[in-house]
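Recap quiz, item 2
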Amino acid sequence: MSRRRLPRSFYARPAETVARALLGKYLLRRVGNRERAGKIVETEAYIGPEDRASHAFGGKVTPRNRAEYFVGGRVYIYLVYGMYWQLNITTGVEGFPACVLLRALEVEGKSASVARGPGKLCRYLRLDRSFYGEDVTRSKRFWVEDRGMRVRQREIGTSARIGIDYSGPRWSRRKLRFFLRGSPAVSGR
DNA sequence: GTACAGATTGAG
DNA sequence: TCAATCTGTACT
């Protein structure tokens, strides 16, 4: 099986494009001499300073969200509800705040629910604050691989993003969530 | 300093 | 339906 780490150029595109393109790719996490891997089946795009649902709405910069402005291919991770980590990978160019939220993985040989949902995804891959700003194009402990899986457009479902009702009708309804139709690991209540 | 809500989850 | 649990942010 071909296993190619995704290069910087993959992430140097609009968040919406990258969010779609990440479906069917694999997240790899090295823990000691073991690896944990999972196929990405659900993502969301946060597309820039005009996106009311984004932590960087209006160009806001804080200690927590500054990584969202990093060049495409770096980790923006933060804690929600005081207990769950949320993994994002930045997209586009340095200085423009856009990213993709990784919401669910399908893990071979494991229950479909093991990494179903952004909090559980981070728990399964053991990702936390120490990965803040990690460069996934270079990191030895965390990266994304293309294993040659082809995803057809019609296999991709879209919907409004989850949990961002505070962002107003225009942005909360926009279809910036992407998922592989039929995957048992896709979240949703 | 204090109050409050959040890109969620699992129990009841 | 609700509480856990804690940080960033707004406001006193």
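The helical segments of chain A are 8-11, 15-21, 118-125, 168-173.
DSSP finds four helices and nine strands in chain A.
End of item.
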